[in-house]
Amino acid sequence: MFKKVNNIFLVYYGSFNTKSGSNIHILELLRNLKKHTDIVLFAPGQKSVDRSLSGIKYVPVIDNKYLVQPSYEFMLSFYLLYSCIKNRPDVLYLRQNSFPFFPIILCKILKIPSIVEVNGIVLDELKVDPNSQSFAYRVFSYLALRSENFNYRHCDRIVSVTDKLRDELVRLYSIPESKIHIINNGANTDVFKPLDPEQVRVKLQLESSKKYVCFVGHLAAWQGVEFLIHASPLILEKCPDVHFLIVGDGVMKDKLMETASNLGFSDKFTFTGRVPYEQVPFYINAADVCVAPFIKERNSKIGLSALKTYEYLACGKPIVASGISGVKDLIEASGGGLSVTPESPEELATAVVKLLLDESTRTLMGERGRKYVVENHSWDGVARKILDICKDIV
C-alpha cells in the first residue's frame, strides 16, 4: 500500500534571472505539487532574482557567472542539512543540471528517498554549445559528467522526459531500466489556451491582414531557427503576406537576425527578444502556424519533450516540427500538426505553406491538439505522476 507523502524538498540549480523552459518546468512542478503536499523549492538566490514567488528558499550565492554554481553548491550544503534536520522531507527531488553532488550525498547519509529528473545529457550539450572550448566550460563539464554518474547511480528513482533519453541513461551509466520512469513535459492549460486571434493581434500591434508563423523559445543552436529563416523565401514565394514572429532571446539572436538580413528578409521577421511568460500565449494565439525546427544533433539521440510543442497545442495552434523522437510521437498521437525531416528548409516550407493555405485543416488540428494536451499533458497530471513515484519509495 502506498504511504502518504507529506513533505517534499525540490532542489534546483538553474537561475531565475533568466526566462527558460527549465524555469517554467520547475515552477509549474512547485505550483502543482503544492496542491497535494507540502513542498519547499531550494534555488540560487542572486541579488536581482524575483523573490515574490512563494514556497522558494533562496540560497545566498556569489553573483558571478563562474562562481554562482560552486558557491550555490557550498551554501546549499548548510541550508539543506539544517532544513533536513529541522523538517525532514519524505522525498528529495533534484533536477539534474549544473553539477550537483551534495543533495544525493545527504540523502544517502540520512536515508532520505531521492528522485533525480533528467532532461538531457551533458556530452550532447557540449557538441552544440558555442562556449564548449573555454577552460571554465571544460572544468564545469567535467564536474557535470561526474555529477551525472554519481547521482544516477545513487538516487532511488530517475525521471526521464523521453524514452530515448532513458535508453541513453541505461547505455551510458548501466542503470537498470526499471529504475527509470518516463514522464513527458506538460503545459499550463489555464494560461496556454485558445484566444481570439484578432484581439491578440491588436494587443500586440500586429497587422490583422497578414498570416503569421511563430517560433517561441530560447535562441540556441539546437532549436534550428536558422532553418526556418532559410525556408522563408520558399514560404513567401507561395504566401507573400506571411510575417515571422521569433519570440525569445539567446546567444543565437544576433546571428539569426544577420542571416535574415543577408537573405533580404529583415522586414519579414520580428525578433521580440525576451517577453514575460504570461504574454507568450498572446504571440502563439496571434499565429496561424507554429514551428519547432529542431536540429538532429543533440536531439535525435535522446528525443525531445519540448515545452513549446505542448504550449502550441494547448493554444489550439497547428504545429510543424522536426520529426525527432518524442516530438514526432506527440504530433502523431495528438493529430495536431505535421512532422518534417530535420534541417530541411524545403520540407519545412512545404508543410508550413500547406497549412497556411488550408484554414479548415489548421482549425481541425488545433482542436485535436488542444484536446490531447488537456487530457494527457497538463502540469497537474505531471505532478500526480511524480507524486505516485514518491509514494512508491517512501
From TrEMBL:
Its EC number is 2.4.1.-. Pfam families: Glyco_transf_4, Glycos_transf_1. GO terms for molecular function: hexosyltransferase activity. Residues 21-190 form the Glycosyltransferase subfamily 4-like N-terminal domain. Keywords: Glycosyltransferase, Transferase. Residues 199-371 form the Glycosyl transferase family domain. InterPro entries: Glyco_trans_1, Glyco_trans_4-like_N, Glycosyltransferase_grp1. This is Glycosyltransferase.
